[in-house]
Amino acid sequence: MGPGSGPRAVIEIGIIGCGFIGTIHSRAIKGVVGAGLVDASVVATCDVDLERARASARPHGAALATTDPHELLDAVDAVWICTPTSSHRGLVEAAAAAGVALLCEKPLATSLEDAEAMAAAVAAAGIPAQVGLVLRTAPAYQAVVDLVRSGSLGRPMAVVFRDDQFLPVRGHYASTWRGEVSIAGGGTLLEHSIHDVDVLSWLLGEVTSVSARTAAFAALPGIEDVAVVTLTYASGAVATLASVWHQVLTRPSTRSLEVICEDGIVAVTDEYTGPLTVTTDAGIEERACPYPDWVDGLGMRGELGAAAAGYAPQARAFLDALAAGRPPAPGLGVAVAAHRIAAAAYRSAADGGAPTAP
Predict the structure, then answer these.
(1) Over pLDDT 90: what percentage of the chain?
(2) Which one of 14, 182, 280, 329 is CB 3.0 to 4.6 Å from 79, fit for a cystine?
(3) CA 81 – CA 12 distance, rounded (Å)
C-alpha cells in the first residue's frame, strides 16, 4: 500500500514498462482479473514512450498513463516492474520508499551487488516483493521437482539442462537493449538462463562449486551467446547447463531438462505443460502436466495469449498473497541466490573455467 493509504477492497495495480514482457504481464493480469479470480484492477501504466503507456492502459480502462514512475507509484498499491534490467534497482528502491508492493522481472539487476542492495531495501521497507522467475509456477517443472524430491526415483545423480533461443535483439522482442551490456548486464546466462540456474537450485539445493565457459559468436561486447556451466551440489549431484543464443528465428525459447536418478530418469522438453517422460525398471511412462482448469478457462488464444497463460499463475499467486497478507514467493532472496551462482559462473569463465564457490 502507498503511504497514508488504508486497506482497499480492490488491489490497485500499476505496470511500469509496456514493451514485450510488460504486454505479456498485462494480458496475464487482465485474464485473472477479468475471470474474477482476484479482486484487483490495473489503474496506471508507465513507459518512456507515452503512446505505448496509453496503449497499455486502454484494455484495462486505466485512468493514468504516464512517463513518470513516481506519479504511478503514488497511485497504486502494487506495481509490476517490466523495464530493461539496468533500471530495476532504481524502480525497486522507489517502490520500497513509497511502500508499494512489487513484482520485478528477472534478472533482478545487472550485478550481484545491485541485486543484494535491492533485496536489502525491500527488507528494510517491509514491503511484499516477488521476482518474475516464472518457471516456479510452470506445471511441468513443479511436477519434476515434486517427483525428484519424493525420493521414489532414488537420489538425483546428474542433470542435463539445455536452453536455447534466437538472439533476442530480433524477432518478436523488437528491441536492441539485450545486446548492450550496460543495460542487460550480460548475455544468455544472466538475461535468459537465470531462470534455469534457479530451477536447478529449486530441484537440487545448495551449490558448492561452479565451473563455466562462455563464448560470443555474435561479437556483441560483454554479451555471451554461449554459456556452458557445470554445477556441483552439496548432495553430490552434478548438473550441466548449456545456454545458447543462436540466429535461428524459427526456433523459439526451447528447454530440455533430464534428471538422472539412481532408480529412474525423468525428462521434459516443454517447461510449461510437459509431458514428463519417466523411465524406470517398470518401463517408460508419460505423465501429463496440464495447467489448472482455471488457466484454460481464461480462453487465451494465439501466440501472445499462450505466453500470457504461462504468466497467469504467477500473477494470481502474487495477488493472492497480497490479499491474504502473506509474503509472495519467490521473494527477492531467491533471486539473489541465483545471481550469486551466475556471478560465480562469470568469474570461472574469466579464469578459464576454474571451479569457484558461489
Answers:
(1) 92
(2) 14
(3) 15
